[in-house]
Amino acid sequence: MIETQWITPINTMMLASISILLYPLMADTLFKTSMKMQARTAVKYAFFSTLATLIMFINLGMEINTTHINLISSTNFNVGLSFKFDYFTLMFCPTALFVTWSIMDFAKWYMAHDQEVNKFFKYLLIFLLAMLTLVSSNNLFQLFIGWEGVGIMSFLLIGWWRTRGEANTASMQAIIYNRLGDIGFILTLAWTGTNVASWELDQLFMLKPFDTLPLLALVLAAAAKSAQFGMHPWLLGAMEGPTPVSALLHSSTMVVAGIFLLIRLHPMMEDNELTRTTCLLLGAISTFMTAMCALTQNDIKKIIALSTASQLGLMMTTIGLNQPNLAFLHMCLHAFFKSKLFICSGIISHNLSNEQDIRKMGGIHKTMPITSSCFTIGNLALAGIPFMTGFYSKDAIIETMNSSTLNLGALLLTMAATVMTAAYTTRLIFLVQTGPPRHYPMQKITEDKTLSNAILRLSLGSIAIGPISAMTLDQTQTLPTTVTTLIKLSALGATMMGIFVSLIFIHKNKQNRPQKNNLSTFSNMLTFYSSLTHRSPTTHLLKKAQKVSTTLNDATWYEYSVPKFFSKTQLKMSKALSFLAQGKVKTYLAVFTMSLMTLIILTT
Amino acid sequence: MEFEHWSVQSKSNTVSTRLHCRVAPLWAQSVSGLSKDMLPGPYPKTPEEWAAAAAANKYNMRVEDYEPYPDKDMGYGDYPKLPNRSQHVYRSLPLHWDFDPYLWTQVNNSLTTFFAFLGFMVFMFFIGYLYPSYQPWGQSSILTMTSIWEQGGNPNKKPPKVKHYEI
Q1: Hey, CA dihedral for A109, A353, A453, A374, is it positive or negative?
Q2: Cα distance from B91 to chain A (closest Cα, Å)?
Q3: Which residues partner with A72 through β-bridges?
Q4: Looking at chain A from residue 234 to 293, which residues have their Cβ under 8 Å from any Cβ of chain B?
């Protein structure tokens, strides 16, 4: 039975946009046409459709539209399909679709020589559908369906080149880390199902104050999905996948699902100080650690992956500050320049015969002018240079941090991370684009028109979307209007400091030979986290388990408990009693005498 | 009826060459390509058995490096006690003079450094808990009930009616 509430144009158009994406998945089987153009066209039309709904929402000011279809209904527990088209959904959908449109243009070029390119585009579309299900769901169950969907597609796409051992390892690592986080999500589902008897978000938000256990479980789920400290190694390993996968999943859409979960469920968390403090401290340590590690990496994709993790830490910190709208703004703006950075890195490495080491690049501002310009714009936006897209959200976050009452350690770590972000973006710009070319000389470098259009679109977004979004931000809380000059300039000062320090070191490195340094090794090896936690604990655990199994099961039960025990006791007994069978008369006389005396004693 | 009797005898006696050569008749079906003396056997008790187990045709190790598990009925036999680390990672080996350390990543780990980093983070958060960062609070400009009484006023008194016009 379908129960509908407020069938509005926004509702219909959003559902139609999601349905547009289903067509290429079915049409490929029915009509046997090329998947690449269909998928790209469908995503483009879905983007324009969702953009229209966003404009309608901003103009008409309608807050929430939901459609409820009951799947399972019992006496006190109902599970159904319900969609929530509020500010977060209507803002995120066009962002994700715009980014996917550009990535599909890039993937058409990047995966041109792949034999299963149709299947690749289908996987991307299924991922996109799962992501849109996640952001538009109005209950935890439907959200979990989208959550698992993006995890599974991430596994399939990271391991796309399945003949590579490293790709298989990376995809297993990703799915296992995500599964550890799913423990938290399932715990929340179980707790809410048992205690609240509902998974609908509107009903959960009415229950205040919320218990700490399900909230911390949600933080665990978000930490795993969004690669926070402790659950971050999978994001770096995910760079084994094709660059379009890294650009779509591991920069703008899938990794922000954890942050989106916390933003969506923020009304449950806003009164719980322990949860907010956990988010703040976890975000601070994540952003600092990943920014520190990005300073000494030499693989372009790894640097951009670590910068993604650093920005995710910043978003987590913002949630800890009780500012979900600001975190959401940063999430949407970050998607533009981060996906553009990945696309540019893919174009550069593909043109240089899959060279990903930035020490072997250089001089591409002459050979690839459009790509290098867009790469520079993306890096400047990431660093938070004034009036680029990243500036609007990052500056607001740092201002909010400085004017809030919070842990000083978290504040200092975040400011240090801002300095380091500016430093490694400067390093990236200089080493990748400037200087003499350090790559192999005979390279066929092409800048396709479709490719250029894709990155130019994203560049336009990286410049213009910032002020547009800042003007249309959902003002639910009074923003700080009076801040001192020092606080206002703190973010800018940190960025400039990072750029100047990086320029000094780049200039010095041209003269001096690089030397081995313990701190540099610590940063390059990602704080030794992977090598310490992936190998030693599992090996020791397996060895102990093997020892317990062989000792307890094989040795004790199969051998020592019955067979050998019996044989030893029997042997002892038979050895002890063997003197009776030796045929000596004195033995028989002794036995006879002893038994006679025993009989006399017993009878008297 | 004749059976084809193809059997190749290898000249060298190493495991690798014997694996690639057929040492059994063509019609013989075996589970693996290894013969009985290539498989792990009982615990070596004599020096000759020790040397034979370590030799190139069994485990391909030097006699000095070869060490079997202790003979405690655990079923290991003469299988060597290999170090507990993976053979698939690059580890710190003596480097050639011309070896470029910036091309290959070597596996390093230092538990002390990692815990020092974690300890530093915890220390930062502890200091931040003791000394939180906040904006200084100024005097409130909103008049409270107490301040009105202190200034001699009466909040319960109605304000006087102001006439804005004159007729």
Answers
A1: positive
A2: 12
A3: A79
A4: 281, 284-285, 288-289
Q: Does the beta carbon of A163 lie under 8 angstroms from any beta carbon of chain B?
A: no
One domain, residues A507 and A592:
no
Instruction: Give B14's pLDDT tier (boundaries 50, 70, 90).
Output: very low
- A335 in the same domain as A260: yes
**Of A448, A480, A512, which marks where a domain is finished?**
A512
Contact B125 A411 (CB under 8 A): no
In a domain, A536, yes or no: no
Distance CA A122, CA A133 (A): 16
Largest Cα–Cα separation, chain B = 142
Q: Tell me the one-letter amino acid at B48.
A: E
pTM: 0.82
Return the residue in A285, A407, A490 with the most chain B beta carbons within 10 A, the one to mutate for interface testing.
A407
Structural domain count, chain A: 2
Share of chain B above pLDDT 90, in %: 11
8 Å CB contact of B133 and A405? yes
Q: Are residues A500 and A599 in the same domain?
A: no
Whether residue A297 is found in the same domain as residue A415: yes
Burial string for B128-162 (b: 16+ CB within 10 Å, else e) reads beeeebeeeeeeeeeeeeeeeeeeeeeeeeeeeee
C-alpha A317/C-alpha A339 separation (Å) is: 22
| Portion 385-404 of A in contact with B at CB < 8 A | 402-404
In which element (H, E) is residue A509 found? helix A485-511
Do both A461 and A581 map to the same domain? no
CA A45 to chain centre: 28
Whether A546 maps to a domain, the answer reads no
pLDDT of residue B104 exceeding 90, the answer is no
| pLDDT tens-digit map of A486-516 | 888 999 999 999 999 999 988 888 777 767 7
Q: Do A525 and B84 touch (CB under 8 A)?
A: no
**Is the CB of A285 less than 8 angstroms away from the CB of B74?**
no
**Cβ within 8 Å, pair B117-A543:** no
Q: Confirm whether A59 is domain-assigned.
A: yes
Residue B100 contacts A where some CB pair is shorter than 8 Å: no
Is the pLDDT assigned to residue B145 strictly greater than 60? no
Domain assignment present for residue A541? The answer is: no
Could you tell me what percent of chain A has a pLDDT over 90? 61
In terms of residue numbers, what domain contains A293?
1-512
CB–CB contact A522 B110 (8 Å): yes
Residues A350, A484 within the same domain: yes
Considering A512, A536, A569, which residue would you say is the last residue of a domain? A512
Are residue A245 and residue A317 in the same domain, yes or no? Answer: yes
**Residue B15 predicted with pLDDT over 50:** no
Kindly identify which residue of chain A lies nearest to residue B110, measuring between CA atoms: A528
Average pLDDT in chain B:
71
> Do A493 and A586 lie in a common domain?
no
* A490's tokens: 């703190």
